[in-house]
Amino acid sequence: MTHARREAATATHLVAGAKRGDPKAFDELVRRYRGRIFALALHLSGGESEADDITQDVFLRAYDKLSEFEGRSEFFTWVYRLTVNRALDIRRARARRSESSIEQDDPRLERAVQIDSGGDPRRAAELRQTYARILRALDELPADMCTTVVLVALQGLSNGEAAVVQKCSRGTIAWRLHEARSRLHAAMTDYPGAVETKRGTSAHLEELLVGAGFPVLEPG
Question: Is residue 178 classed exposed, middle or buried when 0-12, 13-18 and 19+ CB atoms within 10 A define those classes?
Fold first, then answer.
């Protein structure tokens, strides 16, 4: 049995236990998935406090609605969908207020710079400008497209899994990734402050984002 199948089987067992009223079973589900849910919420919301709130809210909703989970999809895709919906509510509210999510203390930016700068202040300053531009371009993508990029390029979901989370076809996911790559590359083309990352330049979306240290899998 593959790791993914073992993970799915364990989650199914824990869900069944939680439905029977075993609090330890649901606590174990939270322990297993909290880091990934926090990372997803952070990538989509851009704020640690918001990501914390989203994560707490998602698991509260999951607990309340557990009886409605019929197991037609995997548990993690179900809680991912809850997370995406909640984070996009916050994204839309921010857009209505015309607020930019990229601030100097943006945790996504600071973590990426810390990982890639190697403690070099000059390098950190250069990377901060480039990564802020990348994140701004990512956040300015249409909400569904941005979510697809985060799910696939940063969270490591397959196109099929992302399609389940976003309730669309695999073809739609593939198109969104292709279009996002083009838009992000265009946003970075001829950007005078752009610098090389560990895994390449802005021409390669996945390598750029992963190389920038953005796939945060655990909080803190």
Answer: exposed
